[in-house]
Design a protein that fits this description.
By secondary structure, the chain is an all-alpha fold. Helices cover 79% and strands 0% of the residues. It starts with a helix and ends in a 5-residue tail after the last helix.
Length: 268
């Protein structure tokens, strides 16, 4: 018959008490930890593995025969691997954060050495700053006109989120193109063509790719300019409202719907 670890094995009971005490102490510290989400994941991982070990002990799988002993040893080995690997991944893997407008500006500034897109990068940075200003103005004036809990105000706030998503999707597209654009390579091909080393066909094909970069990046900034123009129109309509009646609320709701429908045409 299997021996009762939970009742007859003081070492097993002692180990269980140590595990429970350690986990309890860790749980008490989590609320004051700035990395709370990661700490909760780590605690959950270790708690789950500890629970598996405790269940193994309580089912009295260890010491009741060769097969049971092998199974128990395997469980504890896998637990050790799980603890080491799981904690390593949780500690080593950085949390993915949502980029801020400042992050996008910094990323664009890293490409300022590209003479081909110097003015375009400057425009994209200016567009981000203007978007932030317009969003701030809209979110300040909306509650004054419609009230914080008004359906139209809430709908407008949701629309602003859609606007930002479309706008920054274009900015990410610009950054992706800038990351892969090799200005030195195009200058090199141009020089070799002038020296007669590179054929006219190679030069033509190479600069078709070059022009596609230019066209795509320019199109993204133009789309963002259209998005900013739509926000300007909204601000104008909002500023015309003093005490909104039912008809004006309906008109504003229609404008919001129209804005969201138009955004799909300005996202690359």
């Amino acid at each position: 018959m299997a021996r009762g670890v939970s009742s007859n094995n003081p070492e097993g009971n002692g180990a269980m008490l140590v595990i429970e005490s350690a986990l309890g102490a860790a749980a008490d510290k989590i609320p004051n930890n700035p990395d709370r989400k990661k700490q909760i994941k780590i605690l959950a991982l270790n708690l789950g593995i500890a629970a598996a070990d405790i269940i193994t002990l309580r089912l009295e799988l260890i010491g009741s025969g060769g097969l049971a002993t092998a199974f128990g040893v395997t469980i504890f080995f896998l637990s050790a691997v799980g603890v080491i690997y799981g904690n390593y991944r949780l500690f080593a893997k950085p949390e993915r954060s949502i980029p801020t407008p400042e992050d996008y500006i910094d990323a664009l500034n890293e490409h300022r050495e590209l003479k081909t897109f110097e003015e375009t990068i400057e425009l994209a940075i200016d567009q981000i700053e203007r978007l932030q200003k317009k969003n701030k103005n809209i979110l300040v004036i909306l509650p004054q006109i419609f009230g914080d809990s008004d359906i139209t105000c809430n709908k407008f706030s949701a629309a602003i989120i859609e606007v930002k998503n479309s706008f920054f999707a274009n900015i990410r597209n610009i950054l992706n193109k800038l990351d892969t654009f090799d200005e030195e390579d195009y200058n090199f091909i141009r020089k070799k063509h002038e020296e007669g080393t590179v054929s006219q066909q190679i030069m033509k094909d190479k600069f078709e790719v070059y022009n596609e970069y230019v066209t795509t990046i320019k199109a993204a900034t133009e789309d963002n300019e259209q998005i900013l123009l739509m926000l300007d129109k909204l601000l104008l309509r909002i500023s015309d409202i003093k005490i909104p009646d039912r008809s004006q609320r309906d008109q504003m709701a229609e404008m919001i719907d129209d804005l969201i429908n138009q955004l799909k045409y300005y996202r690359n």
